Amino acid sequence: MPACWLSPEFLKIQRKNNMELHKLTLKQAAEGLRKKQFTSVELTQACLAQIKKRNKDLNAFITISEDRAIAEAKLADEMIENGQATELTGIPFSVKDSIATADIRSTAAAKILDNYTPVFEATVVEKIRKAGGVLIGKTNCDAFGHGASNENSMYGAVRNPYNLKKVSGGSSGGSAVSVADHMCFYSIAEDTGGSIRQPASFCGVFGLRPTYGRNSRYGVMPMASSLDVVGPMARTAEDLAIVLKYMAGTDKKDATTTVATVDNYDLIAEKEISAQGGSASGGKKSKLVVGIPKEYFEIEGINEEIKKNVLYQIEKFKEQGAEIVEVSLPHTKYAMAVYYIVVPSEDSSNMARLDGIRYGVREKKIKSLSELYEVSRANGFPEEVKRRILIGTYVLSAGYYEAYYKKAQKVRTLIKSDFEKVFKEVDILIAPTSPFPAFELGEKKSDPLQMYLADVMLSPAAVAGYPALSVPTGFTAEGLPIGTQIIGDKMKEGLLLQVGKFLTKKD
């Protein structure tokens, strides 16, 4: 970005045309607000104008909270005027619709919750709003996070901003598109098996899955509670670092959160990678050690353009003097099988609360209680949700629990052990985010097994609970974004963000 981007002359022109303010990064917008070169109201109006212009084609938002956003922007301007601002004060952001937002409709993209407005707030959203963030709306997603293309939303598919005939990726496709198309500055999403990283890769933005327990899950509509993680999506690694600093930390409302200290991720991300003269991860090694998991490059059907692009990123580390080591994660090939046993099992339990009685849409003209359950769920859930509930119920049933679920958990332990061993040797792992770029709408929807393979490179880190970051590192010949995945040791999000900044640094 040119140094004059925030010059008084440039911004004077921009104030006359608020449409352009939405193209700033979060860091640039925060600096402009602090210097009072424009207001939060102007920023918010610019984002709302972009939403009005593009959402009809992209379908990124289910709910747009225009009046409330403007009101929050006015309060943010007061905070700035009174010297109470943080880096997030006055910055418009979006939230995946499967994350609860107080007094704002939260449907999880399923008709059974079409009329659901929570009276409480997810902890991560509460933290950001206390810091002065402006919530601009709720983004479309695969219903309850069930999917890898954002075609399983009951409010219509989300389209890729680079090619409207392509999928956005899932399940956080709406969040990815809202960031990629400059409808907001960052988005809060959720990743179970790849739901942040895959759409980030397909849409050319940064997407971070933090370590399991790094962020609170309170207020997140659960799919698989032992894998669900809340994380940010943004247009730069530095922007991710700023957001993570505010949303991370322990929470008394979520017993799975860690008590580990929250690092100053933004300060870590600002530092250059120390490939020589000390490991960036703070270890005793003399060089940054980059691991290349061979299993990720041997997956059948991997797109050659993507493979070539990721290998080029590895060359960048070589040029910096980093040590490159081929490593093996032998149980990687079982990660998908483990994922699609554990997730539907936990899913079937979590979905039981949605019955048309406690909250949400209740079908009318029903003759019995059992019919109320059946019809409400039949009409309120899309096919993929029903499919996973059925699989999970079967797996957990008497006679099958030990054969499937218990065995899957044992293999899950082996997958975790693979990562533990590897991170004794290396600082980070580099691999593709997805084996292919964004595919055509409808291309895989009729074949669930092919759709599930979209997460083949994403599920291992998720199953093991390790942090991973998808970084936009180029484009295919067709003009579709390519993502490189960086996997790190537990609680090493700062290093991942450092590496992400390095890989996207312009010469």
Structure description:
This protein is of the alpha/beta class and 507 residues long. It has a domain at 3-267: Alpha-Beta Complex (Amidase signature (AS) enzymes). The chain has helices at 8-16, 26-34, 40-58, 66-81, 123-130, 173-180, 197-203, 237-247, 265-270, 294-297, 304-319, 335-350, 369-380, 383-396, 401-422, 448-452, 459-464, 493-503; strands at 61-64, 92-96, 134-139, 159-160, 163-167, 186-191, 206-209, 229-234, 289-293, 323-327, 428-432, 468-475, 481-488. The strands form two sheets. Strands 1-3-2-6-8-7-12-13-11-9-10 form an eleven-stranded mixed β-sheet, sandwiched between helices. The chain has a two-stranded antiparallel sheet with strand order 4-5. α5 (123-130) links the parallel β2 (92-96) and β3. The protein is globular, with a radius of gyration of 22 Å.
Secondary structural class: alpha/beta
Question: In CATH terms, what is the fold-level topology of the domain at 3-267?
Answer: Amidase signature (AS) enzymes
Low-confidence region ranges: 1-7, 276-284
Strand-residue fraction?
5-15%
Overall average residue pLDDT: 92
Quaternary status: single chain
Question: Helix amount, in percent?
Answer: 25-40%
Output the keywords.
alpha/beta, 507 residues, Amidase signature (AS) enzymes, 13 strands, 39% helix, single chain, 18 helices, disordered N terminus
